[in-house]
């Protein structure tokens, strides 16, 4: 099983599609410190980082800035275990749910994360 958050449309991916919690790494912050901060903020609990899954390119045909028609993210995915089993999503996530294959309405980028987890022997 894997956990997914359904986006409320504040950020990419589009509203209603499955996504993973995430965000920006602040200046002077390590990527691992950002994982802990984002987990606390978006999931309401800290996490144990099990491993780094990899870095992924995300290309979108939309942007938040006038005069810019697209954006390009470099996202580093981590495999984590929540410290507390009770997750409390913040307001940018409509819900948190677990699922198994076939994946329901997941953004292709999220599906890639899950396929890479499977290739490493993780079961969901």
TrEMBL record:
<feature type="compositionally biased region" description="Polar residues">
    <location>
        <begin position="1"/>
        <end position="11"/>
    </location>
</feature>
<dbReference type="InterPro" id="IPR000086">
    <property type="entry name" value="NUDIX_hydrolase_dom"/>
</dbReference>
<feature type="region of interest" description="Disordered">
    <location>
        <begin position="1"/>
        <end position="29"/>
    </location>
</feature>
<protein>
    <submittedName>
        <fullName>Colanic acid biosynthesis protein WcaH</fullName>
    </submittedName>
</protein>
<feature type="domain" description="Nudix hydrolase">
    <location>
        <begin position="12"/>
        <end position="98"/>
    </location>
</feature>
<dbReference type="Pfam" id="PF00293">
    <property type="entry name" value="NUDIX"/>
</dbReference>
<dbReference type="InterPro" id="IPR015797">
    <property type="entry name" value="NUDIX_hydrolase-like_dom_sf"/>
</dbReference>
């Amino acid at each position: 099983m894997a956990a997914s958050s359904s986006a409320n449309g504040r950020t990419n991916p589009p509203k209603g599609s499955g996504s993973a919690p995430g965000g920006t790494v602040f200046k002077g912050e390590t990527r691992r410190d950002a994982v802990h901060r984002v987990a606390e903020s978006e999931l309401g609990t800290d996490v144990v980082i099990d491993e780094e899954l990899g870095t992924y390119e995300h290309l979108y045909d939309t942007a938040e800035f006038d005069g810019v028609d697209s954006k390009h993210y470099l996202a580093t995915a981590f495999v984590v275990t929540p410290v507390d089993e009770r997750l409390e999503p913040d307001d940018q996530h409509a819900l948190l749910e677990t699922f198994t294959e076939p994946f329901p309405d997941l953004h292709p980028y999220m599906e890639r994360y899950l396929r890479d987890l499977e290739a490493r022997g993780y079961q969901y």
